[in-house]
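Example record

The entry below shows one chain as it appears in the dataset: sequence first, then structure tokens.
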Amino acid sequence: MTNSSEHSTKFQETKVDEAFSMQSPIFDAIDYENSLVQLIRSNIRKHVLQHIEPKQTMLELNCGTGLDAVYFVEQGLKVHATDNAQGMLKQLEAKVSTQNLQDQLSFQRCSFNELHLLEKKKYDHIFSNFGGLNCAEDLKKVIQSLDEYMKVGSMAHLVIMPRYCIWEFLFALKGNLKLAFRRLKIGGTISQVEGIEFKTYYYSPKYVQKAFGNNYKTISLKAMGCFIPPTYMFEMETNRPNLFQKLISWDAKLAHKWPFYNIGDHYIISVEKTH
């Protein structure tokens, strides 16, 4: 890595840390109050649960305040949760303490760019939710660094934002070209959380599959919100309830098929290490 790219990576990490640390005290409330986020999170968890067994181990990247880490511990897993945002880990630490989860849930401040700093051990599952990995400028490098923490039979479940989102393309009809085509911008696009700007990069399922390489096979791939609108359009559930229910039905039937897993707000890809 050149000095220039190292500086770019550190600057990005610093801004993401600042943004999400600032948001951390209200992060759970934002999550709970958004019915679309709750729906998608529930679907993601159900998807992952199909592949796990009690007493297995999980490494979580971008764990945030630990909403998913605590959930998977409740399902019988032992979880090591990581995040680079100090504020988020402070919220998680409080959950671990108040719920007495110390034996099942450990946590560590660690960027996904520096996974080599983790204890060298193998996990049954690696999980990252809601596009946390879209903050990675070089996702291929991050994905390849996961191999050290996986054994044959281990699985990775990654929720990523793709380069195409049919709902966002529709904003072009309203003249909002910036939103409609933001995912296509070369070099990433500027995102903002709590007034702090950082870059977001978008990656296709094909990119992710290629990054994992020949030692991995794709077990499942499906959109998390293709016909269902992006989570920032949660008003639709109230304003157009009949249409919203139809969209949920279409998602359930078609989200795992091409081309729909390429054009949602997020997709979840589950891969298994074969050798």
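Notes for this example: The first strand starts at residue 57 and ends at 61. The two ends are 28 Å apart (CA to CA).
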